[in-house]
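Loading example: each entry is read as two labelled lines plus one structure line.
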Amino acid sequence: MSRLEVFIDFKSPYAYIAKDPTYALEAEYGIEIDWYPLTLNIGSYLGTAKKTSSGKVESQNRSPNRWLAVKYAYKDARRYAGLRGLTLKGTEKIWDTTMVAAALMFVKQAGHDPLKQFIDITYDRFWKRELDVEDIQVVQDLVTEVGLAGPEFAQWFAESGRAEQEVMQMQFLKEGIYGVPTYRIAGQTYFGREHLPRVRWHLEGEQGPCPDIANDSVVASV
Amino acid sequence: MSEIKALDVYLDLGNIAGLLALPGLSALAADLTLNVNYWPIQGIIPRPLSPEPSRKPDDPLADYKQLRWQAKHQHELSELGRDCERLQLQVDLARNQYDASLTHQAWLYLLESQTEKVTDYIAAVYAARFQQGRPLTELAEVSELLSTLQADGAAFADQQPLWQERWQQHEEHYLALGIHDSPAFVLDLETFQGRQHLPLLRWRLEGESGAPPV
């Protein structure tokens, strides 16, 4: 069976709504997914914007076309989240997810179940606007909540974790990983959950022609 | 008697993204009782390949942007290869991006004069560009193509300034609705951009029974 690597960023609504359809592959095919954090620099390709808590744009450098694309993307992600009963509130700014990405790697060492719990609670709270992922105490508490030593994480992050993250991000880019969610399997790299039919095709032994892209996963509502 | 649903489909004839949606759309239309209305759109997102970013000397993110573009470009090329294999197209023809304004104007002309020829026209333009490598960026070429479909190509050529104006109005209309990429689908005033949404459209059109595809 092919190894499946999945790259996510907690600040991506598309990665959030892909999480459960992706996790469903583990039960369906008896595999364990190898998760990695990719920290997107959204401002570098979509421009930046900051909103007030009431949703009014405070400052921005986006072109009208980029606004159209960003607004549609959030609307689209909310549509699919809504179909599953997930809460997906618009963010007030572009968050720096470096710290929580490093925490993912830290928790990953403890194995599948703590990592799944970490990914689940981080996504859920972040998109309810209940999580400040730039606050070391908040991220440390998340690590503690899933059964690991939060203070050890904070110390590691300050001493070398951040630097390791930055090196890892450049390495991912060089390997062709530039967006989330990305799936890497059988030597192929697929960006976007619409590629899940192709991931399944690999997991099923690549029988017949490679399927077209589609958002076709059926998962239980929350 | 159940109501016949209308699905508005927006396609950009300047790249293959819309063409890739046609097999799935045909299957949907064949399985369901559906009125499909086709409209032209000039997508704002370059497809199938993104242009290389311009490198500004004082940009601290220049290296990141370049590296990200290289990764994206590689993915787009792989995707193009898979799509070409599926539709049996040649990559060197399918990768092209054309200014489709004139062919979109002729499409609007057909919508007013000979609506029944629109689907054949769409297929003919896609085939000319992405199977035969004909750009169709000259008025005479577009007029000739219309004539091969037994449409009045000469009349379109005579009235082209009028259709250019109509095209600009149409562009303003769909952009105001937030539609900006090809293929786009509008069902009950809700917009779906990209062929990956076809399973959800089918679910909606079939009465939303069972769990939705997500």
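The radius of gyration of chain A is 17 Å.
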